[in-house]
Specification:
Gyrase A, domain 2; alpha+beta; four-stranded mixed sheet; 168 residues
């Protein structure tokens, strides 16, 4: 496979992503593979590194020689807008149930205590980690966690509370 660098104008790439293409590249091989894309801020170009067996053999003076892209304009009748992907209606799924469980656990704590804690879900547990060193607040928070059926997990580097999610 032979690699080449292609310079694209940012506007062309943005129009292609939006589905409003007014021109297209005509001399690119069919078996083209995209390896890397970078935006060069100083030259205002998008640089794409591609490879294909269809590229002509060129004496390689650079590590990756540049490939000149030839554009052809589409007529107004050929231009078709991209079809929009309609999002599925919001359903009550597991993520929604998990967020509800986290909110229910968070509501058990006072606003001052919530500022000292981070809440996440790991498997069947709500994990509560202190975001800073807890002094007198630790005992109060531990009492709330124990009332919810949770326990303190002491680790070597990280300690946290684990509260089992309510199974319904």
């Amino acid at each position: 496979m032979k690699m080449r660098t292609i310079k694209l104008e940012p506007e062309f790439l943005l129009e292609a992503l939006r589905g409003k293409v007014t021109s297209f590249a005509t001399n690119l091989p069919e078996n083209l593979e995209l390896l890397n894309v970078k935006y060069d801020l100083f030259s205002d170009y998008v640089l794409a590194i591609v490879r294909s067996d269809g590229f002509d053999d060129i004496e390689e003076a650079y590590p990756v020689p540049e490939f000149k892209v030839v554009y052809a304009k589409l007529s107004q009748t050929e231009s078709k807008p991209a079809t929009l992907i309609k999002p599925e209606p919001l359903r009550e799924n597991k993520r929604f149930q998990v967020n509800t469980e986290i909110r229910a656990v968070e509501e058990e704590f006072s606003p001052e205590q919530r500022e000292l804690l981070s809440f996440t879900v790991d498997g069947d547990f709500v994990i509560i980690k202190p975001v800073q060193y807890l002094k007198d607040e630790w005992n109060e928070i531990n009492d709330v966690v124990r009332s919810l059926g949770g326990k303190w997990i002491k680790g070597d580097f990280s300690s946290y509370w684990a509260i089992p999610l309510q199974q319904s």
